[in-house]
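Batch job 17 of 40 flagged for manual review because the log was empty.
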Amino acid sequence: MKYENAQAILPDTLVKELQNYIQGGYLYVPVEQQKRWGEVSGYRQELRERNRQIREEYRRGNSVDVLSEKYGLSSYAIRKIIYQK
């Protein structure tokens, strides 16, 4: 976790108000609602799309072995993707 100087990022009035409660200490400000893994980078969506493509190709007749080779995943991983709800 990176620490920021409050005076560098907050308005002076807010810094003065915070100093009434804490001076020279550390204050943790949590995020309102934390994003799930991969949401910030977009990787979660990429995996969703890849899995959708794998299921579609399987429905079109590609075998688990062909999909495993194409996507660089184990046969077990491909089966998990195909049969997930």
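Reviewer: the log was empty due to a logging misconfiguration, but the result itself is present. The chain has five helices and no strands. Unflagging and moving on to job 18.
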